[in-house]
Amino acid sequence: MFSQVLLLLLSITPFSSPTPVAKRAFSNGPVITSNFPDPAFINVGGTYYAFATSNGAQNIQIATSPDFDTWTVTGSDALPTIPSWSTGDVWAPDVAQLADGSFVLYFAATSSTNTNMHCVGTATSSTVQGPYTASDTAFACPLDQGGAIDPAGFADSDGSLYVVYKVDGNSLGGGGTCGNGDGSYSTPIMLQAVEADGVTLTGTATQILDRDTDDGPLIEAPSLVLVSGTYYLFFSSNCYNGAVYDTSYATASAVGGPYTKASSPLLVSGSDGGALNSPGSATVGPAGAQMVFHADSVAGDSSLRQMWTAGISVSGGVVSIS
């Protein structure tokens, strides 16, 4: 039944065979200049749709583009009503389209049990822009490990569907930047199989990556794609509000790993040869050709995280900006 899934997913890879898309190098500065953190995108009917973390007015922001170059923030809210298990503060959405034409939204939001932590939730809609109706049951909520954030979907070549997310261990404390400066806690990336509806769990989640010394206090924001038999797991390292926040990647020959981290990040501050600051929380599109990510408008100031785009090349286990 997984083989019936047709179309794209956002932050990780599509629930489908990807449609070829044109590559492009860095956008000439941010394509969205307002606060649009943790962006993810999908192409439906030739139109690009981007979704982002709450800006205080909308729980999930939406922007559209006809060409991946010119973007318009709509001002509408993809998730106007939060689920009963949450108090709000919605982060890092991702959207997938299923075989029946409906859409699944993945997101993180605060737990009503412990408002210092987030859980991953799901919501559904008949249209890509919503409004989405959230499930009253959290998808992943390991509060004893710090909660869960940054969900994204993935469809394997055999049609099997998965969701990846981060266990937010740094929310437990540990001091220093992002609450885990002494490295006391793990921040693993988890892989959870789901049924054809994109939301029903199959088995239990398994760990496919974790932080090490070079990653600072955490890894987060997973995005998974499959290109020519190699799995590319994109993620961010270090604290989001610091100058060394980056976009990195790891590779594997099987979806469950083991994953080997690249020897150096894909994106760091100044990667564009200019004013790119703390580039992270990237979503990579189908076939590993297009990417969206956020970067700070001013070095050292994460209060305004703007969306950038880039074209990438993925081949032989190596990713580069094209």
TrEMBL record:
Keywords: Glycosidase, Hydrolase, Signal. SUPFAM superfamilies: Arabinanase/levansucrase/invertase. Pfam families: Glyco_hydro_43. GO terms for molecular function: hydrolase activity, hydrolyzing O-glycosyl compounds. Gene3D superfamilies: Glycosyl hydrolase domain, family 43. It comes from the Eukaryota. One of its GO terms (biological process) is carbohydrate metabolic process. The record marks 150 as: Important for catalytic activity, responsible for pKa modulation of the active site Glu and correct orientation of both the proton donor and substrate. Residues 1-18 form the signal peptide. InterPro entries: Glyco_hydro_43 (IPR006710), Glyco_hydro_beta-prop_sf (IPR023296), Glycosyl_Hydrlase_43 (IPR051795). Belongs to the glycosyl hydrolase 43 family. This is Glycoside hydrolase family 43 protein. It comes from Letharia lupina. The lineage of its organism: Eukaryota, Fungi, Dikarya, Ascomycota, Pezizomycotina.
